[in-house]
């Protein structure tokens, strides 16, 4: 494995620089079509990307990128490929369609704030924590509207190259605070660690008396018994749970307005969606033969 790492700044980024650099990071690595990611994966020099780009959760932001599964003879080639690609991006800029696509992706992600099964409140807390633990305003990382609009305006007025190339040159290409990490696998590492562990355990055992060994066996059995014994009803009552009384009897009311657009009936729901328009199109499929229904996904 080989990975190039930069310390981007001795001090935390201001929020505007952090936001813009995060956008630059997405442009370079955020999708399979992103130039730095694509060129590395298509080079055949390694198996997968390592590093993951920017890490701004620490006091000093860092940027790392590399490949794993690299042969020892190709380490220098990977480093040269990364630097050549970064220089080319700084000189030529990014495709405007890629910039627009990244903008749409990032804005949608910020507005929807979809954390999946992970608790949304906890996600917001962790986002704030990255600044809070360094005595900065914990609410500022949650405010993105002004920074997003400012970045959109700057890209529109100056062009994406004028926005991102200076960042790329200042914090990466002209930044001497860089280290290249090379790691080679040791095929005997696991067996060596197992042998060391067995030796340590044997030394400990030799220092124990028969009484010590008997007490160890007893406490081990006691622990196993406790682990296998079901909790008592009293203990289970301490676990928070919902009852039928906690569930609302009435369903959630969704406001619905029925309108007609170009002869098509449209159902509109006036709900807060943080600036995102969700649209579902429903087609009458009753005229389709049943045996053709499984083929419908081919046309999505």
Structure report:
- With 300 residues, this protein is α+β, with helices and mostly antiparallel strands.
- Strands 2-3-1-4 form a four-stranded antiparallel beta sheet. Strands 5-6 form a two-stranded antiparallel sheet.
- Helix 2 packs antiparallel against helix 3, helix 3 runs antiparallel to helix 7 and helix 6 packs across helix 7.
- A hairpin with a 2-residue loop joins strand 5 and strand 6.
- The protein is extended and about 90 Å long.
- It contains ten helices and six strands, in the order E-H-H-E-E-H-H-H-H-H-E-H-H-H-E-E.
Secondary-structure topology with pairs:
Elements: E1 2-7, H1 15-29, H2 35-42, E2 48-55, E3 62-68, H3 75-92, H4 96-112, H5 120-132, H6 145-158, H7 160-173, E4 178-182, H8 189-206, H9 210-228, H10 233-236, E5 257-261, E6 264-268
Antiparallel strand pairs: 1-3, 1-4, 2-3, 5-6
Summarize the main sheet: 4 strands, antiparallel
Secondary structure: helix percent: 40-55%
Tell me, rounded to a whole number, the average pLDDT: 92
Report the end-to-end length measured between terminal Cα atoms: 40 Å
Q: Low-confidence runs (pLDDT<50, min 5 residues)? A: none
Shape: extended
The share of residues in extended strands comes to 5-15%
- Individual helix count: 10
**Radius of gyration over C-alpha positions, nearest whole angstrom:** 28 Å
Number of DSSP-assigned strands: 6
How are strands sequenced across the largest beta sheet? 2-3-1-4
Q: SS-based structural class?
A: alpha+beta
Order of helices and strands: EHHEEHHHHHEHHHEE
């Amino acid at each position: 494995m080989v990975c190039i790492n930069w310390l981007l700044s001795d001090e935390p980024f201001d929020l505007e620089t952090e936001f813009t650099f995060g956008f630059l990071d997405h442009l370079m690595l955020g999708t399979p079509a992103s130039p730095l990611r694509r060129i590395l994966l298509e080079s055949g020099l390694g198996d997968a990307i390592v590093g993951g780009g920017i890490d701004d959760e620490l006091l000093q932001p860092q940027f790392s990128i590399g490949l794993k599964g690299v042969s020892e003879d190709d380490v220098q080639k990977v480093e040269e490929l990364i630097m050549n690609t970064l220089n080319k991006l700084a000189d030529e800029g990014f495709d405007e369609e890629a910039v627009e696509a990244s903008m749409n992706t990032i804005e949608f992600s910020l507005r929807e704030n979809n954390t999946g099964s992970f608790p949304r409140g906890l996600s917001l807390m962790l986002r704030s924590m990255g600044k809070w633990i360094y005595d900065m305003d914990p609410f500022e990382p949650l405010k993105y509207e002004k920074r997003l609009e400012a970045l959109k305006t700057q890209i529109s007025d100056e062009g994406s190259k004028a926005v991102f190339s200076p960042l790329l040159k200042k914090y990466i290409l002209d930044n001497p605070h860089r280290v290249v990490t090379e790691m080679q696998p040791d095929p005997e590492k696991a067996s060596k660690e197992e042998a060391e562990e067995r030796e340590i355990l044997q030394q400990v055992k030799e220092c124990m008396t028969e009484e010590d060994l008997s007490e160890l066996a007893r406490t081990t059995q006691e622990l196993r018994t406790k682990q296998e014994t079901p909790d008592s009803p009293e203990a289970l009552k301490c676990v928070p749970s919902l009852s039928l009384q906690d569930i609302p009897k009435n369903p959630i009311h969704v406001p619905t307005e029925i309108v007609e657009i170009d002869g098509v009936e449209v159902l509109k729901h006036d709900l807060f969606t943080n600036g995102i328009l969700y649209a579902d199109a429903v087609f009458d499929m009753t005229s389709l033969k049943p045996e053709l229904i499984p083929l419908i996904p081919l046309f999505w």
